[in-house]
Task: inverse folding
C-alpha cells in the first residue's frame, strides 16, 4: 500500500473520524486494500513522539511501536474502543494506538 503507483489509483478521504477509500478499478484485490489500509488514531506517549507525529507528511513511510488501547472517560460516561484485528472493516474498525516510538523512514 505504500507503492505510489498503487496509491495513485485509490481515492482516499477523511471525514471527521471516518476513513474512506474509492477506486474506479481495483489495482489490488479489494480484500488486500481493506486489510492493508486503516484509519489509525495516534495517541502520543510523550512530547517527543507528539513532535514526530506532527512532522509526518503525505507520502512518508513511518515505523511506529506502541499498543492498541481503549479510551474511557474519567466519569466512565464515554468510551472509544480500538479494533483488535486487521480483518474488520467499516464502523468500529479503526485502531487507537498509544505510540511509544515513531520514526520517519523515507521522507518525500
Result:
Amino acid at each position: 500500500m505504500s507503492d505510489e503507483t498503487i496509491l495513485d489509483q485509490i481515492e482516499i478521504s477523511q471525514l471527521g473520524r471516518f476513513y474512506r477509500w474509492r477506486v474506479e478499478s481495483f489495482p489490488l484485490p479489494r480484500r488486500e486494500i481493506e486489510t492493508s489500509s486503516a484509519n489509525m488514531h495516534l495517541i502520543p506517549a510523550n512530547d517527543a513522539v507528539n513532535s514526530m507525529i506532527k512532522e509526518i507528511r503525505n507520502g512518508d513511510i513511518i515505523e511506529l511501536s506502541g499498543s492498541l488501547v481503549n479510551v474511557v472517560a474519567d466519569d466512565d460516561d464515554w468510551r472509544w474502543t480500538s479494533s483488535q484485528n486487521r480483518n474488520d472493516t467499516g464502523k468500529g474498525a479503526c485502531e487507537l494506538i498509544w505510540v511509544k516510538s515513531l520514526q520517519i523512514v523515507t521522507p518525500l
User: Anything to note?
Assistant: The mean pLDDT is 90. Residues 39-108 form one domain. The radius of gyration is 15 Å.
